[in-house]
Amino acid sequence: MRKYIRRMRSSPILDALFPEIRAKILAALLLQPEKRWFLTELAQHLGTQPSSLQREVEALSRAGLLEQTKDGRRVYFQADTNSPVFSDLKGLLEKTAGLVPILREEVETFGERIQLAFLYGSTARSEESSESDVDLMIVGDVGLSDLVPSLRRAERRFGRPVNPTVYSFKEFKTKARNHDHFLTAVLRGAKEFVKGDDGELAAVAG
Fold it and tell me: pLDDT per residue over 163-172, tens digit each?
């Protein structure tokens, strides 16, 4: 599955900290720590040649950021989740090259037409896998047909399907006041905001 990394837009923070290819490798492996990659697969995923990755993955392995395992003739690379800096690096990458920054870029193109946008479900609970849908709630003056091009762009960049639920401001408020079963469950669960915050959500739902 082609992920978003190859199409990752430049981040000033990542540019300042890492060479481009190293940032791409770290994003691919640390944002999907459960996945093992062999070099040719990773090169294809990043749109480059294996020879350009070999030195980097070996250096990252020596630094304790990646671990190597052998399966027959193949050598696999994977994020070393036991590294003392794994959580910090993963957090940095999530903030600069993860789901929320990518979705935020797309949501912001609609301006004030979107009042709230947040992730819920397994992604918000940090229980998702690389195959999980991304559950996204959107409240505003937009329809699903308006959102499809933006969501498809986001899907191509991070390689997972987006499952949008779209409500107008009035519909959201009515459902919240009537204790709609689905919406109530969503509001009680974990959320990660793409636009807005808990205070704005409470004001809209109240």
Answer: 999 999 999 9
